[in-house]
Fold this protein.
Amino acid sequence: MSWKHTAAVGVFAVAAGLAGLVVGSIVTGKGAPRGATDLLSRSPATRWLADAWIAAAQPKAPPGVRIAQKGDPAPTIALVDRNGQKATLAQWPQHLIVVNFWATWCTPCRKEMPELDRFQRKHAANGVQVVGIAVDGLAEVEAFLNDTPVSYPILLSPNFNANPSLPFGNTYGALPFSVLLGRDGRILDTRLGELSESALENWLAPHSKPRGAAAQHPTPIETDTGSKITKFGPWRQPPAQAANA
């Protein structure tokens, strides 16, 4: 076989493999793998394919539910603090905010919280704020935090039957789910799955200008389906197991 034929076979194999990944991510509803879309995003010639893949692979929202997009203001959702007082994400103006939706019964959530805590302590002086939103009951949250305290605030949704992360783009029905908000309160990016401290550093880097500096253009919303997540349904029912998406 000539080198031209070998090259043609190689190109065909790569294209077939990529097509299989795309179809699989759409059919299974697991979302586009971030590693693959990051690779495609490096070239202007294939950036459109990455964008289309991400959009096509994300599960659709329920009818009548508006999902915020990149560049949109953060949705206003009902929240309370651990004392039962009303709370809002707007209480941290001019901050880069990492909003982390989690639950005590979500194993990847519990694993990433020490990483989030270290990240918060490191960047607090630079106007970065981690905010945890528990998809859980107060008693369960307090019991967990007694054993695993964190330095960042934990809020709760008073509506036990609602998915508070859905308006932010979590149509996957899985946790953990994190949202990065700019200093102007608009959505910069979202991530599905467990985040390590190094992943948080990389996530923050393109947006880490000091307070008062001009905001950068928001990056495309992508979902991290290469990380561990806990899927569940109906909403707020503890899952049978953690899955590797």
